[in-house]
## 1
Amino acid sequence: MLEIGAGLGSLTRLLAAAAGVVRAVEIDHRLMPVLREVLSSYANVELVQGDILALDPARLMNEPGYIAVANIPYYITSAIVRHLLECPKRPARLVLTMQKEVAERICAEPGDLSLLALSVQVFGQPSISAVIPAGAFYPVPGVDSATLRVDLHPQPYFTDEQREMFFSLIHMGFAQKRKTLRNNLAAGLHLSGEEAARYLVDADIDPQRRAQTLSLVEWKTLVNELKDLLGAKREQETPPA
C-alpha cells in the first residue's frame, strides 16, 4: 500500500496490520520522529519524507497492483488524484478521503458530468464507500467528508495517443458549459458551426447537446470521429525540437 499523508500514524498502523508492505509518505519533516517511534514495531512500514506531488509513485512502488490510500487536505485532492492516475505505474485502486461534494462530482453520471468526473472515470470506476460527518474530525471542518474508492480498469480505456486527444476534446467541450457541443467544438477546432454539427451527427450525437450529457462511450466515439483534426491540432501546438 502507498499511504499519502501519514500524519501521526493512526491509519498507518491499521494498514500495516492488513498489508504486506506499506510505504507511508509524509510531507511534514517535524512528524518523522513521532512516526518512527509510533511505527517502530512494524517491520513492513517504510517511511518517506517528502511531497507526493514531487515524488514519482512508480519509483516508490515496485509491487504491481498496489493500493493508494490518502486522507489529504481538500485543496490538493484533484492534484493528487491526477498525479496518481497519470503516472506510468498506476495503482489498482485508490481509497481517498475527500470533501463529500467533490466525491459526489467524481461519481456523477451523464447529465451531470464534469471535467473532474471524466478525468477519473476514464481510468477507473469510482464509488463512495462511506460518508464521514464533519464532527468526526478535529478541528471540525465546515463540510462533511466521504471515502471515495476508484477501481482502475484492468486495461486502459484509450491508447496513450487517444487519451491525449480525449483530454483535449473534453476541455473544448467544457470550455463554456452553457454552450452546445456544436458551438464549443466549432470554436476549439476552428470549424464553422455547420462543419462541427456534421462531425457530431456522424458520431450519432445531437449537435445541440451539452458536454455534461455525454457518456464516456460517446466521448470515445467522438474522439475516433475527430482523430485527424485533433492530431493536426496537436502537431500545430507542439513546439519544434
## 2
Amino acid sequence: MISSSQTETGAATQDETAVDLPWNVVVHNDPINLMSYVTMVFQKVFGYPKEKAEAHMLEVHEKGRSIVWSGAREHAEHYVQTLHGYLLLATMERGQ
C-alpha cells in the first residue's frame, strides 16, 4: 500500500527530474584527434550509424562544437566521462 506522502514524494521527484531535463553533451573541436577517429568514437559510444556520426564530427570540425546527445543529467555525466576516456574534449550544459 502506498501512502499519500509516498505518492507526493514520488510526484515531486518526477517533477524535479522533468524540470532538470535536458542536459546536452557537447563535443568541442581539438587539433589532435583525426576526423575518422572522432567518427568512430561517436559510433562506438552512442551507437550512431556512420552517417550520423560523420555529421556530428563535421559539425565539430566546422563550427567548433556539436551537441551529440541530450537527456538526463546522470547519463550526460556518464557520456562526458566516457568521451574523456577517448581523449575527446567534451562538456555538458543545461539544455534550453
